[in-house]
Design brief:
Shape: globular
Oligomer: single chain
Radius of gyration: 16 Å
Number of domains: 1
Number of helices: 1
Structural class: mainly beta
Helix content: under 10%
Distance between the termini: 40 Å
Strand order of the largest sheet: 6-5-4-7-8
Bound molecules: zinc ion
Number of strands: 8
Length: about 140
């Protein structure tokens, strides 16, 4: 049994490909077959054209910090020794506006900047769950 104490994601029908991809070290984002728009969070229909022909699609995992905050707050069990930590809104390079919320690892909170180039990494937190996280990369 894992001693991981932080809240864990619970996959549903729409998000399962995202979490399964992470378990295999691949960042997977829905993409619309009708108009080629990437969609995140996963949705039952494309917000651009309305098509329900959406498919999990591997992406590069490269992006930039769109915005971020530094949390000093222990808001849930398991974060007692984590503060301060960075919560970042990362914009992926595949499409303007394609953003996801994650943590930034391997970087002092004081060194984080908007526009900083980042790359996905995968943190296996339990045998069943791997979390996509981001770390700085050379531009
Ligand atoms: Zn579409």
């Amino acid at each position: 049994m894992s001693d991981y104490r932080k809240p864990l994601p619970v996959a549903d029908e729409l998000s399962r490909p995202y979490w399964e991809g992470a378990r295999h070290g691949v960042l997977v984002i829905q993409r619309c077959a009708a108009c080629a728009t990437y969609v995140h969070y996963p949705k039952p229909a494309c917000p651009r054209c309305g098509s329900s022909d959406l498919h999990p699609t591997p992406v590069s995992g490269r992006g930039t910090v769109h915005t971020f905050t530094v949390s000093h707050y222990v808001g849930a069990p398991g974060f007692e020794n984590e503060t301060p930590y960075v919560i970042a809104l990362v914009e992926l390079e595949e499409q303007p506006g394609l953003r996801l919320v994650s943590n930034l690892r391997g970087c002092a909170p004081s060194a984080v900047r908007v526009g900083m180039p980042v790359q996905v990494i995968f943190e296996e937190v339990t045998p069943e769950v791997t979390l996509p996280q981001f770390t700085p990369r050379a531009s």
